[in-house]
Amino acid sequence: MAGPSDNFDEMFDRNGNTRAPYIGYCDWYDEQEVAWMRQKSADCDDSFRRTGITFNVYGEDEAEERLIPFDMVPRIIGAGEWRRLTRGIEQRVRALNSFLYDLYHRQEIIRAGRVPERLFRQNDAWLPNMVGFTPPGGIYTHIVGIDLVRTGPDEWFVLEDNARTPSGVSYMLENRETMMSMFPDLFSEVPVETVSNYPRRLARSLAASAPPAFKDSGRAKPTVAVLTPGIYNSAYFEHAFLADQMGAELVEGSDLRVVNGLVQMRTTSGYKPLDVLYRRVDDDYLDPLTFEPSSMLGVPGIMDVYRSGGITIANAPGTGICDDKAIYSFMPEIVEFYTGEKPLLPNVETWRCADADSLANVLDNLEELVVKEVHGSGGYGMLIGPTASKKEIKAFRAKLEASPENYIAQPTLSLSTCPIFTKKGLAPRHVDLRPFVLVSPNGVDITPGGLTRVALKEGSLVVNSSQGGGTKDTWVLKD
């Protein structure tokens, strides 16, 4: 087996000894034939290809649809470590919901001078249509993904928040199903918390968020649907997968219309009321009567029904403001303001390029920093200084000087590594983690695991699948 790496390796310590969470797995691994493991690695790829687990890449002619690379060495987190993480995740998610409520009501955090008003007044993700309106149950972010990175044994940081439409949960589920089918004996030797009940938990959480109109309808069970932009969307596999696993309807905008003041779904026996819509359509395209008039993806009039209490939209329109990386930089203040506690999970140190002093520091140290667009995602529009060419740094310097408010900068972290399986054996690669959180009037529900993304290229810090990254099964050990 491989020895230790220069970074904090989650499987091996500096002396090459196996860390406690991995002992059961490593004992099993050492007993396996290398040729058999190589065949299993190929079988995993075949399984993903047969299942159709792909994603679309926009703006590239050579390969619009790609296979999600999967590595069969699990990322393992001990039960005690997971309990500490979940406390921090829950604290942050509760603060996000409180922040969103405040932002669309009295804006006490701005009155108190803790967050500058300019961050949302000039932000397209902040929706004036939501001002003064409280979603059913007071929940804004029903499904949240909190991206975490690790730099040491007890050093976890939040890299970014995904409060609008976090994706990737279908890969978490398929990763586990693939591992269980390939290595069933392994799960009898290592006690791992289940993630397969996530769709059931999601359905239960969404149903608990049903609007007032359902409660007055006399119907026994709310109707839940997943709204997809259609088959050409990059995450369509996930939309279809979750609808199927939840026993919910998969709909497009053309399947829905407002009838008698309610959003109703076309069926073989006419239109039927819809209570909860898990939407995977961006705010701008949700309602052509309220937002983008040319949109063919949404439902005309749905915002009026929403504001009248006729439907629950998950996640609520306007939650995208929390995905903004400039807002992220204020999360320590936001958590403390609404919880009265210091954040249990710290942010990565962040410089706001809109501030003149911060900009000067960033420009002086571009070669050492990671610079990101405040509205960016998917690994696009960013500079990783230590691996960038002089030409790339020069071009990014010009962007920063022209529009500093569009960027934040962070130090280049020594991300933890977790081994992947290669032809030569185990080799360390950098990883991050996206736990998935469900929020309803019944409380906060965190699935024990999440999506581990891995940079498959040696030395790379970019884990996004659109940038060549892959995924791993994430194990949380039982006590």
* CATH architectural label of the domain at 351-411: 2-Layer Sandwich
Q: How far apart, in Å, are the first and last alpha carbons?
A: 26 Å
Spans of at least 5 consecutive residues with low confidence: 1-5, 57-63
Oligomer: single chain
Rg over CA atoms, rounded to whole Å, is 23 Å
Structure classification: alpha+beta
Q: What name does the CATH topology of the domain at 351-411 carry? A: Dna Ligase, domain 1
Number of helical elements: 15
The backbone outline, from C-alpha atoms, is globular
Main sheet: strand order: 3-22-21-18-17
Provide the helix percentage.
25-40%
Q: Tally of extended strands?
A: 22
Profile the largest sheet.
Answer: 5 strands, mixed
Q: What do the pLDDT scores average to? A: 91
- For the record, the CATH class of the domain at 351-411 is Alpha Beta
Per DSSP, what share of the residues sits in E-state strands of 2 or more residues? 15-25%
